[in-house]
Amino acid sequence: MKKSILLFFLLLMLITLQSCQKNNSLKPKQLQWPTITSWGFTGKMAINDGHNSGSGIVKWKVSNNSETYAQFKAPLGQGSWTLTETNDQAQLSSSIRGTSSATDAQVLISHELGWQFPWQQLQFWLRGYSSKQHKLIPHSKALSLLNDGGWEISYQQWTPTAIGLLPKKIKARKGNFSVKLFIYTWKINDDN
C-alpha cells in the first residue's frame, strides 16, 4: 500500500514537473534574413483573375540575392513556365508562348497573365514581410494579416525551420485577383 502511494506521488510529481517545463519548440526564433543569401521552396500555387484560374506545382529559388528562378507546372500537360530574373534581365519561357525577355520580370508575367501580377511584392510576402519595408527586418511573431499595395495577404499557416517560422500557407487578394500558395518545403542557404 505504501509503495503504491509513493509510486502515485512520484508519478504525479513527474507529470507536474513536465507540465512546468518550457516548450521551446513552439517559440519562434527571430529570422536573420540579412545573413541569408540563397533560399527557395517547393509548393503549390493557384492564381485567379475572377474569370480564369490555374494551379500547379511551383519551385522557387533565389541565389546569392541576385538571381531568382521560378518554375510553375500545371497538371495534365496544361502548360509550364520558367522565369529567371537577374538584377538587369528577366526571361520567361512558356510551353505555350515560347521564350520572351525584358529588363523586368513584372512586365513579362503581367503580359503572360493579362493582369498585374504582384511579382515584386510576392518575393517579400513569401518571407512574411511587406514590400514597403525596403529591407527585411527580422521578426519573431508570426503575422496573420498584412496589407500591401492594395493587396490583403493572409498567413494561414506557419512552419518551423532552422531559422525560425516561415509561411506555409499564404492567400493574397486584391479585388477579383487572388494568389494562393501552399509551401511543402523550405530550403535555406546551403540546403539549396
**Cα-atom radius of gyration:** 22 Å
**Helix percentage range:** 10-25%
Order of helices and strands: HEEEEEEHHEEEE
CATH architecture call of the domain at 33-78 and 111-191: Clam
Major sheet:
10 strands, antiparallel
CATH superfamily of the domain at 33-78 and 111-191, by name, is Lipoprotein localisation LolA/LolB/LppX
Share of residues in strands: 35-45%
Overall geometry comes to globular
CATH topological fold name of the domain at 33-78 and 111-191 = outer membrane lipoprotein receptor (LolB), chain A
Number of helices: 3
Structural class: alpha+beta
Number of DSSP E strands: 10
Q: Mean of the pLDDT scores? A: 78
Distance, first to last CA: 61 Å
The first-level CATH class of the domain at 33-78 and 111-191 is given as Mainly Beta
Give the low-pLDDT segments: 6-29
Query: What is the strand arrangement across the widest sheet?
Result: 6-5-4-3-2-1-10-9-8-7
Please, could you describe this protein's structure?
It is a single chain. This protein is an alpha+beta fold and 192 residues long. The protein has a domain at 33-78 and 111-191: outer membrane lipoprotein receptor (LolB), chain A (Clam), CATH 2.50.20.10. The chain is built from 3 helices and 10 strands. The chain has a 10-stranded antiparallel β-sheet with strand order 6-5-4-3-2-1-10-9-8-7, covered by helices on one side. A hairpin with a 4-residue loop joins strand 1 and strand 2 (53-63). The relative contact order is 0.18. Residues 6-29 have low confidence and may be disordered.
